[in-house]
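---------- Forwarded message ----------

FYI, see the Chaperonin 10-like protein record below. Original note from H. follows.
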Amino acid sequence: MQAAANTVQDHMGQMPSEVTPEYKHDPSGKTMKALAWFGTNDLRLVDAPVPDITQDDDVILKVTGTTVCGSDNHLKNGEIMTMQKGDILGHEFMGTVWKVGPKVTKFKIGQRVVAAFQISCGHCEYCQKKLSSFCDNTNNSSLQNYMYGQRDAGFFGYSHFTGGFPGGQAEYVRVPRGEVGLLPLPEDVPDEQALYLSDILPTSYHAVVDTGVEPGDVVGIWGLGPIGLCAARWALLKGAKRVIGIDQVPDRLAFAEAKLGLETINFKEHTDVPKRIYELVPRGLDVAIDCGTFHEPKTTMHKVQKTLMLETDVPETINEMIVSVRKLGRCGLIAAYSGFANGVNIGALMEKGVRLIGNGQAPVLKYWDEILNDYIRTGKFDTSFVVTHRIPLDDIVPFYDIFNKRLAHVEKVFIETQFSNPPSKGFPATTRVKDWDL
């Protein structure tokens, strides 16, 4: 799939972009540790050239914190198109400013910042509205333009389908348009609270706001990974009366019950999820949000279709949500769907008047200030409930396998580099993967 997709994209050529994914190398010849993709299930920690200022508005960071997202597993598993050997992964990271381009006046060397996972130009129609993930000018993928009719913004470390930009699971990273995509951090916010402003906090918040959770709603959350758990927390903060979490991993179900007080459904035990929901909520859900994954079919029919590449994504969660919500209910998709699914229950969608909302990639810049100042700094949202582990960058390869298999009670990890601060109070201490009880 990778070779075919890359061949098609090369044949179509690149779309116009104001930023380039390629970077100059630091003239000193310095190298850094970085996680790179070399094929399906072939990730390696390599020595890569440290990036230098390539365009005048670049900022180079020393990475002080990074993490692994559930969607990164799609890269590891070879399920996202146009990966190329040597691609540096990672779209969630923070750091201190190491170098700035000549056009950068907002940041000073040594300043502490967090990066949005998307790269935005700052001046197009969408960026003017702070809809940074929909930027018109930072993704050169002709294949995405062909498949979707338009392009999203470029993303860090997430294939050439999103621009081919090297990511932040590394010791240094180049941030194009740094004055747009970096948020300065106040001293009273520890790294373990700040890092997740890069993705999971605005992504989960966007899912709840965009799907329209209102006070008194009964909400169903499919998938109890970090995004699902945070979405459940946001829904409760927005006044949801009840939140029901749906998953198959006993540890995650127990975690959601203990940490957030959610009602839960194990779909391995209750294979007919809508039936179980109607037993709990006879009127049906007001809101359903898909925070799960497209790549794990439940039924034999869709397992066969995926194997034969007759579909790229599966519709099973979408169908469960459409059936489970009340008439005029809202269903939001924040899970990372990529292509085509067969057998969507479009009849129920139409006849029930269901609002099926593609949330899109979260426009991080739209929510940054609100989440930081109204929720994190006030203590209303504390990330310590979801950050379960801390490891050194040296352990990132074995960690991917554990995270992909949902072992060791992992929810969200903080990955430290040689530049990281010590662990903050209330957050996990550094441990080594080899010492974990699996």
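H. also flagged this: The chain has a mean pLDDT of 96.
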